[in-house]
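Q: Could you fold this chain for me?
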Amino acid sequence: MKVENLREKYISFFESKGHKMIPSAPVVPENDPSVLFNTAGMQPLVPYLMGQPHPYGTRLCDYQKCMRTNDLDEVGDVTHHTFFEMLGNWSLGDYFKQDSITWSFELLTKVFEIPVERLAVTVFKGNDIVSADDESANIWRSLGISEKKIKFLGEDDNWWPNMELTGPCGPDTEIFYFRSDDDIPEEFDENDDRWVEIWNNVFMQYNHNEDGTFTELPKKNVDTGMGLERITSVLEGVTDNYMSSIFIDIIEKIEKISGLEYIGNEKAMRIIADHIRSAVFISADPAGIKPSNTDQGYILRRLIRRAIRYAKKLNIDINSNWEEILALAIIDKYSKYYPELEQNKNVVLDVLKSEKIKFNRTLEKGLKEFEKMVSKVENKKLDKDHAFRLYDTFGFPIELTVELANEMGIEVDEVGFAEKFKAHQEISRAGAKEKFKGGLASTGDLETKYHTATHLLNAALKELIGSDVHQRGSNITSERMRFDFSCDHKLTDEEKQNVENLVNKWIDEKYDVIKVEMKKEEAINSGAECMFIERYPDVVTVYKIGDVSAELCGGPHVKNTSDLSHIKIKKEEAVSAGVRRIKAVFVD
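A: Sure. Below is the predicted structure, expressed as structure tokens.
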């Protein structure tokens, strides 16, 4: 059964419970160094979860564009995706466990009509620091979840974010669905793959203090997340997400383009469908990401090139407009919910086509490199280092290397390659984990100061370089700020020095940083700067710094520019066509 209007049903339900819908934030986070992309619905709400009042009040809901790339190489099975949508609802110091759990149960059983016997839940079992979450368990029992389908698990499963990180934290309760035609077991087994998690309700109940103690928060928050792709496949009764209504039309187009059936070619078609969808959303983002060798651009390049490799496996004519056909279908499917896709359609198509042309040249170089390698092999065996170089430098999957080598009667050290590949993945995941350690704990005093300084930098660039200069992105850590802006030329040394001097002059003039709430239309008409206008609600927060800067922003900020040190521009460089980047640090 095809599920219609699932997003609308979710939003409508929570609006009936007093929630206000907020627009999806962009895929590329604004002023958040913790990740390359928004990886969860809560990320754009960090300032509000930390206590800043939200213009829409204390009950919020949305569907949020998300990207996760830790497991990019696992995409190709029935469940993994890079881009996905997260349905979420939040309480900012308003309702707590009773309402959150009750409403989740009501939505699943009454609106989505899931039989209660197909549901099971997990709750936090407690440890020597924090007691078990008996409150959540008792609520589930009162709603009709049987005792055997309530499982108490440890902190690795039912605590967010983890016991080590300081800051707001708490237990969560995860909701599982029995996705199988088998008889439903009386007892829930978390190790039984037929039970799939469909929703997670996080209760930010405690503060983990610097001294290691956990104290109850005076204002407790609720943060929930339910993946649209997964809940859609569950409700439609399919065990392969790519057979749900979210993907089936794209898969059918790939079948038509390739002249092949999905059955027997599942992995390649899943990867193409997933990666092209992800590439469309990244390249349509207001941040203006282009394929490159760093950060978000590197991910975008990998996605497009991996899709091309698998298109070749399906014997698709790479020089045809196959990627345009798929991209236009995706844009048509999603632009109702995310209008930037239609607005930036030409940009998306250009990115895909340009990268396709470049990668075709790279493949040719890779083939030449392969030929050089095999001409020098000993004992008719290609070693792990050469195989990994083909993968890492030229984008050759091991399957392609093995296929080419076999045609020449040469063996490939696949075991050695797998070891090198695993080590490469561990490094990548460690880096991703390190980045994700940001979240609620990542906004310290220095990050707050650097964030405020970006407002002054933006204003100085507009005054000295041109009024058509606009922010295109930023990344802030406790050690530096990185600021991307639209500009058609490389800044001269004199221009950089003048910008730096003006920012420092404003810092010395000790301007108050004033927060004002007003209607979005009024803010824009007043001339306030805004990077992502579509992400803001009808009532917005504007931060004014004297008479030199006014920006729509979610914070955080210092109270006066005298709290800032002087800045020093360390580097200015190109990011992509028409976009420049400044890296600056505070100096004593």
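A (continued): Confidence is low (pLDDT under 50) at residues 432-441.
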